[in-house]
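ABC transporter substrate-binding protein, Roseibium aggregatum. Tokens?
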Amino acid sequence: MLKSTLLKAVAATALSFSTWASAQAVDLQFYFPVAVGGKAAETIQGLTDAYAKAHPDVNIDAVYAGSYQDTVAKAITASRGGNPPQLSVILSTDMFTLIDEDLIIPFDDYLTSDEDKKWIAGFYPAFMENSQTGGKTYGIPFQRSTPVLYWNKEAFKEAGLDPEKAPATWDEMVEYGKKLVKKDASGNVTQWGVRIPSSGFPYWLFQGLAIENGVTLANAEGNKTNFDDPKVVEALQYLVDLSTKDKVMAPGIIEWGATPKAFFEGQTAMMWTSTGNLTNVRDNAPFDFGVGMLPKKMQRGAPTGGGNFYLFKGASDEQTKAAVEFVKWITAPEQSAKWTMATGYVAPRPETWETDTMKKYAEGFPQVLVARDQLEFAKAELSTYQNQRVVKIFNDALAAAITGKETPEAALKAAQAQADAILAEYR
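Tokens:
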């Protein structure tokens, strides 16, 4: 009887402690830009569950907020309403907007030791270009990417091209494209040579062309654009010519979301899209495919892309410290490797690629290394103050040129004037 009573007392004490510990746990709300369901959501949920299990003093509520645009809009609305998330993954290009809205705090305030500073320095420099400004670190790279070129090896072989070799230059892409175009008996194109999407975020893929031609679209301070630079005009003319002059790409606006499916179905032999599509292509392409760096003009080049972690104002000191620790954990090699293998996004720290897990993965799937290696030539994605307004102006200019409503030169000159009017106050 005494033993039974003692066991009950111990159990009650344990339950009481568990209840107390749960009540004392730090609650974190974490916005993540992905629709509910799918491998990305499953992986994030699995990682947050694993962290919560290993850290019972932290409760993490992962809120799947939809697209990047949905996520930043919800984060801004929630912050203005006095109920901000403590942590969110939002586009790296929204950094200046979040600073301008006075919604985020720099990680440096909570990463002050030499070890912490070494950790910050351990991310790829190309990713940090869209993560730091004014000597402070506002974003920590996580869901990051670059665009790459995918090609159908079977289509290459059929066209008499080396199936193991991607076009290395602009001229080669046109040359290959002409050999890859296929037409039916009526003269209708059934397979295009290349597909570069111009909907959704056309500025991003176009930025690859601009960088390859030796120019960036904006300065590092986010207060000046170079839209009407002659090299940008030349890059846009090349893009337009792929359809109108060289006839290797379908005319008009090309849909971003439909591009992988068009590739799978043989409607195009090459495509430009995010390395974030790599796992999708691996799982769904019914043919052998290659992945290569974007072709060069004056130089190799590509923009970085994707999302960073941001810390929001309004959190308690305990919540922010817990958020920082979670970010350090989820970007560590083991977790980062799981995320890269599940999605195709680029692991943002070199140390992840040195793990046995990633080495083994890359050995069996070497295409995953292309985007990582391209970081050597990558530049920051277009990002300015009033970023959504400025990017819309530029996207509209691209569309005007692609659809033939304006010449590249006229469209970009008008876009530069509008961007100048918006950004003048930030200089």
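The two ends are 80 Å apart (CA to CA).
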